Amino acid sequence: MTISKENKTFIDSLIDYYISEAESYRQIAENFVPEVESVPDTAFGIITGCVYSGFLQAYQNQQLTPGLEDMNEFNQIIKKRAPLIKKALLGPVK
Fold first, then answer.
1. Sequence-distant (≥ 6) Cβ neighbours of residue 14 within 8 angstroms
2. Less Cβ around it within 10 Å: N or C end of the chain?
3. Torsion over CA of 36, 16, 74 and 77, rounded to 10 degrees?
4. Which is nearest to 67 in space by CA: 55, 78, 77, 50?
């Protein structure tokens, strides 16, 4: 099984949302200084975790279970969009 077009669109929209809210997630990560060494990396982890959670929830809502192919494809989507997420996290503070 591979990720359906609808689920890919949903994942992309989630990533777009989190990119648009990157500053908020950077602020959340800043709350963990000095426990975390990198605020942008921590915020990136929070964002990717939220997108992953949304991906799993979409499958659960459809009464599906993602297989290995789905997980690999999801990881490729995140990897492809990672530079945009990182750019948003490293951008100027508003």
1. 50, 51, 54, 55
2. C
3. -100
4. 55
R_g (Cα) of the chain, nearest Å: 14
CB 4 within 8 A of CB 61: no
Per-residue pLDDT of the chain (94 residues; tens, 9 = 90+): 689 999 999 999 999 999 999 999 999 999 999 999 999 999 999 999 999 999 999 999 999 999 999 999 999 999 999 999 999 999 865 5
Tokens 């989190």 found at: 18
* Domain that includes residue 83, residue range: 5-90
Query: Residue 64, SS3?
Result: coil
H or E element that contains 68 = helix 68-90
Counting the structural domains of the chain, the total is 1
What pLDDT does 1 receive? Answer: 62
> How far is Cα 54 from Cα 28, in angstroms, rounded to an integer?
19
